[in-house]
Design brief:
Layout: H1 18-43, E1 50-51, H2 55-62, H3 66-74, E2 80-81, E3 86-88, H4 90-117, H5 123-127, H6 131-142, H7 163-180, E4 182-186, E5 189-192, H8 193-199, H9 205-216, H10 227-238, H11 259-263
Antiparallel strand pairs: 1-3, 2-3, 4-5
């Protein structure tokens, strides 16, 4: 799991919040600890929520009673419960938003830089593309279905491929890739389309490619013999409680989330 998955802001004056003062008055420091352990639990979830039906599991983990956890969740207006009976904290996600925005912006800038570097788009083109379009182009690049423009980021037509030539090359490349059955190469290993489909039963394409990016930069991968087994193990460690594939639109229920998050699909 990436280390930033553990991050969330904890304000030094949180104990002075009126709601938390009420928690401490009625449940003592145990209630205060339960509150922040609940936030830690939410931060570990892909969608920042947790099923109410599994509160008993949290009680076992926290070493406290189920009733105390329910009291902290339901009695102090610190958490909300959605229509599917998952509890979450709107304020918690709101506090995380600047961090998520910055992380998203850095990721988009990195992807955009690679697309320019390898000649898939020009610098001028990049200024007019939305985040969603950048992510879509990167997805096509990873699938080896997008053929880079000749001449890097110059954007000129001199000596380069004509649109019709690029279209024909793209179609040929796509057919070759499909025939080979290779989803993506990672260092000396190849992840087949068949193995990718196995991973995609529980994971989003963006999650799989994030793991493959990590593997690409991992020196010890040279000692591994299977891209699928390595990726599968890393995904299991990153999402230990994953039982079904999540919705791609994880921020749809938060009105304050920017459009780039509601539409990004990762």
């Amino acid at each position: 799991m990436k280390k930033d998955a553990y991050y969330f802001p904890h304000f030094s004056n949180a104990r002075h919040d009126r709601k938390l003062r009420r928690v401490r008055k009625e449940l003592g420091v145990e209630g205060y600890g339960i509150y922040f352990m609940l936030l830690e639990t939410l931060r570990d979830q892909e969608t920042f929520n947790y099923p109410v039906d599994d509160i008993d599991l949290l009680a076992d983990e926290f070493g406290t009673s189920e009733q105390k956890i329910r009291t902290v969740i339901c009695n102090y207006d610190l958490f909300q419960v959605d229509s599917e009976q998952n509890f979450f904290s709107m304020k918690f996600v709101e506090y995380l938003q600047p961090y998520l925005d910055n992380k998203h912006r850095n990721r988009i800038n990195g992807i955009k830089g690679n697309l320019i570097k390898y000649g898939y788009i020009s610098k001028d083109d990049s200024k007019n593309l939305t985040d969603v379009e950048i992510l879509e182009l990167d997805s096509q690049r990873r699938s080896m279905e997008l053929i880079p423009m000749s001449g890097g980021d110059s954007g000129g037509d001199s000596g380069g491929e004509q649109p019709s030539d690029r279209k024909e090359s793209k179609e040929k490349k796509s057919k070759v890739n499909k025939n080979k059955g290779i989803y993506r190469k990672v260092q000396h290993l190849e992840l087949s389309v068949e193995d990718y489909e196995k991973l995609s039963v529980l994971h989003l394409e963006s999650e799989i490619n994030d793991i493959l990016d990590d593997m690409e930069n991992w020196a010890k991968l040279k000692n591994k013999k299977s891209a699928y087994l390595t990726a599968n193990n890393w995904l299991k460690r990153k999402f230990p409680n994953r039982k079904e594939k999540p919705s791609a639109d994880i921020f749809a229920n938060f009105d304050f989330a920017p459009d780039s998050y509601r539409n990004r699909g990762d």
